Amino acid sequence: MIANVAFLAAITTFLTVAWLAGELSYLAPYKAGIFRHHGWTISVVVGVLFLNLCAVYYSIARWLFLRDAGRKLSHMDRQLGSRDAVLKDLHRDLKA
């Protein structure tokens, strides 16, 4: 899940930077000075954007995909712990 989230955040960051570069094309003649004076700040902002997108996408993925995992696991635990378990082989292994 983390690899998918990082990939989605990287794609979103790349598309955002590409769109912003297209919108700020009038600054192209000054790019050497801008990157010399503000390159560190720009890279930190892009990195923070990437990390924030990772956090947002990760929380959305957890909410979406792991919504009722606890309920399903507790149901399976109760079912396997009972005497009339559906899977008799697992029932014996769990008691040992």
Describe the structure.
- By secondary structure, the protein is an all-alpha fold.
- The protein folds into two domains: 2-65; 69-96, no CATH class.
- Helices cover 81% and strands 0% of the residues.
- The chain contains four helices and no strands.
- Helix 1 runs antiparallel to helix 2 (31-65).
- The longest helix has 35 residues, at 31-65.
- It is rod-shaped.
- It starts with a helix and ends with a helix.
- The model has no long low-confidence stretch (mean pLDDT 85).
Describe the structure concisely:
The protein is an all-alpha fold. It is 81% helix and 0% strand.
Q: Could you outline the blueprint of secondary structure elements for this entry?
A:
Elements: H1 2-23, H2 31-65, H3 69-81, H4 88-95
- Helix-strand pattern: HHHH
Q: Which structural class do you get from the secondary structure elements?
A: mainly alpha
Largest sheet: none
Through-space gap between termini: 34 Å
Task: Please count the beta strands (DSSP E, at least 2 residues each).
Answer: 0
Approximate strand percentage: under 5%
Main traits of this protein?
rod-shaped, 96 residues, mainly alpha, 2 domains
